[in-house]
Structure formats: structure tokens, C-alpha cells
Here is the input.
Amino acid sequence: MIVGQAGRLQYEAVLFAASLRHADPGFKGRLILAEPQQGGKWPNNPTIRNPEIRALLEMLDVEIRPFEARHFGEGYPPGNKIEALQVLPEGEPFVFFDTDTLVTGALSQVPFDFDRPCASLRREGTWPEPELYGPGYAEIWGALYDKFDLDITPTIDESEPEEFWRRFMYFNAGWFFYSCPKAFGARFLEYTLAIRQDPPKELIGQALFPWLDQIALPLVIHSLGGARRTIPEGLLDGDVTCHYRVFPLLYARETDRVVDILETVSAPNKIKKVLKAYEPIKKMVYQRKGHKVRALFDREHLPGREQMIRNQIKKANLWMR
Here is the structure.
């Protein structure tokens, strides 16, 4: 499942679907695009209204399913992925992906352990940000696990030092999976709403947005019997998928293979006609400004933090989203 709507996500959805069909022609599963509808927490119409895009998605064998956002919507778009799980069939294994992902290998060959969920470890220590004299990582995360009567002990990575963010289970919500979308979605919604409405006192001074989904996700995964990693390393966020996030970052840091797949799947006229309406794709891919970004970096020695990469691209006036 992916979530698609008007704006950036509709173009990314086309690329995701095109890359899946290109990289895994033997994929026998269903690709469902969950589409938020006007009403509820989306006062304006968020649906994909471009008939050419809808036709292209249909050509790529994408099932579009509507859903109503009752809790997040326009005020917190990342909440779409939580509420959208309701459109999937109960009791059937699922994998969720953010639309800003390319499929680069055989997704159908990934040995998912659907009874033991996990999520993307391609992340930085974005949350929490402990204050000098306030609660540290252990107190903040410990308070969250306690709130939901969960034992934090099995989630601790003892190989990491005390009060280092990697010691605590923390994911990027760019992909996750489980054996039942209804159960996962209900637990995800329960935890995010509880944290938003009544955060533990240890979270005072911590920003909940835009990180709310990623704060709740490790708690959800642990509560459902998951762990940091339950599938082999190097597949998702590796040989099989690439969560590129934004096109300048893709060109800056991803492999030649990822760039080649992006440019291959966006080349057919039917796809190009639609995608070139989106300025970042038009400039980065079709006008090849992405290769100017690529020339700025040595991918064997990239800056240690993403913000440093962004700053370098912005300095060259090549940043766009």
C-alpha cells in the first residue's frame, strides 16, 4: 500500500508503481493506493483529479481505494498512513511504503516475517532532543513504554552506549509491515492519539510534530511481537527499495543503479507526459539538473549528516521539492 493524493504524492505514486512493474515483473500481489477524501480532517479536496494520472495508475495496475481521515488529515499529513490502513483487507499480510520510494529489485522475493513486524532503519536521531538538565533518552523512551504497559528492556541495544539515540528502537516510517493491517492500524491509531492527547510528563519540551508517527511506531512494533530487524539486512533500503525522499537527495547520494532505474522508468512517453508537469522531476530528471547535483558529491565520502548535503545543494541553487 501507498498513499496518494493531489500534489507531489500523485507523481511519486506513478514512479513507485512504474518502478515496481519494471524491477519486479513477477510481482503477483496487489498494489493499493489509499486516497484521502474531502471531508473529515481534509476540508479541501485532496483527491487525484488529473484524469491522465488516474488513467496511468490504472494502466500500471494500481487499485485506488478511498478513505476518510477522521483524526489527522491536513493538520498532520503523515497521519494518512495510519488511517489509510483501514482500506486493506483484514487478516491479509501487507507492506506499506511512502510514495517517495523506488522499487529497485524483486520485492516479491523478500522473505517477510509478517508475524514479526519491523520498519525502516534508514534514519537519523531526529527525536527526541533531550535538554541539558531535562530527562534523557532513557527516561523519555522509558516513559512511553510505561504508558502502554510495555517492557522496554528487549528493545534496548546494549552494544550502544548509555544515552546514545541508537540504543533505543527508533524507525523511519517509510516502510513497515505486519500480518494484519486492521490490527496494526488500530494499534498505531490508539498509540498516536494517546501520545498526542496525553503525553507523559517526560515529553514536556519535546516536539511531537512532525515526528508523532515515528514516536509511536517502535511501540506499536514491539507490542505486536516485532523487533529492530526481522528481515535480512540490505534488501529494503538496499538492493530492493530506495527511499529517496526528495529528488536532489536521490541524485546526491544514491547509487548509479538507482539513478538508472529512475531515468529508465520515467522515460516512456505516457509517463513522461504526466511527470514533466511536476517541476522537480522536470528539472532534475528531464532537464538533467540532477546530474549537476550528482557532480557535487563523492558518494564514497558523503557528509555525515543529511542537513550538510541539503545545504551544499542549496548553495548551488539546485534544491527543489
